[in-house]
Prior knowledge:
- The protein is of the alpha+beta class and 240 residues long.
- It contains ten helices and five strands; from the N terminus they run E-H-E-H-E-E-H-H-H-H-H-H-H-H-E.
- A five-stranded mixed beta sheet has the order 4-3-1-2-5.
- Strand 1 (5-8), helix 1 and strand 2 (28-33) form a beta-alpha-beta unit.
- The model is unreliable at 60-64 and 100-109 (pLDDT under 50).
Amino acid sequence: MTLPILYSLRNCPYAMRARLAIFKSKLAVELRDVVLSDKPEEMLVASPKGTVPILVLASVENSTPQLDSAQVIDESLDIMLWALGESDPHNLLRAKALDSLMNSSDTKSSTTLADMLSLITMFDSEFKSALEAYKSAKRYHDTSVQDCRHQCELFIQQLEQRLSNHQYLMDESESLADIALLPFIRQFARVERQWYLQSPYPQLKRWLNHYLQSAMFTKVMAQYPLWAEGQKAVVFGNKS
């Protein structure tokens, strides 16, 4: 059986969260690590915008014209939703919880996919912009670094509050929101490492360390040779 092809870049946070979801789904893909300064033609045929991650659900031959959009997913969140929609053994989308709630007389509220997507969307738009400004200020030794960090902290404080109420971002169990935000919170923690280690966010640090020290993260962040046509395929995920 031909596996879907995932074009990825090891340290790109968007590609990282796509790999996290695929790993959690226990699906398998052919992983093609690339560098954006030398984009393979096959990758550009699949998605001319040329950004990672790109998931190709059908084989691409060198002579193939532009694939139908239904065969290519080139947004990280859409790849996460596809993978977990195919297989979600850990109930990260909370579909099982929703089914249980609908078939029960229990009226207690439950996390929904809409709740998770709302949080993810806010961080993808507002927090990501603040994070880029913070990283840039630190890189260029700008005097605004403290102000930029403060803008990020407005979002970090929300996560700290959530994690003070339960183990994970949405409730007591891991969800799509946790693995979608993880790569960006990792970036935040690395901008000013010493400041972060002394920062007043113990629950956020607990949550992040839980992931960074996990076997899952080690596997998701494994380094592979850059993809080249004709080389042996790298299978990422669960082949079973």
